[in-house]
Design goal:
- Helices cover 22% and strands 32% of the residues.
- By secondary structure, the chain is of the alpha+beta class.
- The chain has a single domain, classed as uncharacterized conserved protein from methanopyrus kandleri fold like (2-Layer Sandwich), CATH 3.30.1860.
- The strands form 2 sheets. Strands 5-1-2-6-7 form a 5-stranded mixed sheet.
- Strand 3 and strand 4 form a beta hairpin.
- The radius of gyration is 13 Å and the shape is globular.
Length: 98
């Protein structure tokens, strides 16, 4: 099942923008903040966990938002729970690899 939306920006650093498929195109608001999960930034296609693992091998920077996306990174030891932010209540994490 394809549950992730992604876009790979090949700009020398290979930035992977990753979001849960079910929040793509949505806007979340809190008192002082608004987060837009825009298709322009987070959508090139949809992928499953196996395809995501391959995309991650090609990426040096990952910007991930959504419970499923962030959990996948944590479960695969690519992110630490203590580094997860929750703007507007939505889990978000960034990873930089060298």
């Amino acid at each position: 099942m394809k549950k992730f939306s992604y876009k790979l920006f090949k700009n020398g650093n290979n930035l992977l923008a990753l979001a849960d498929k079910d929040i793509l195109g949505k806007t979340f608001k809190s008192k002082d903040l608004e987060i837009v999960i825009s298709k322009d930034f987070y959508y090139e296609g949809f992928c499953d966990e196996k395809e995501l693992a391959e995309l991650l091998k090609k990426s040096t920077i990952v910007n991930a938002i959504g419970q499923k996306s962030v959990n996948f990174l944590i479960e695969n030891d690519l992110a630490d729970k203590k580094n997860v932010l929750r703007p507007c209540g939505i889990p978000h994490v960034q990873i930089i690899t060298f």
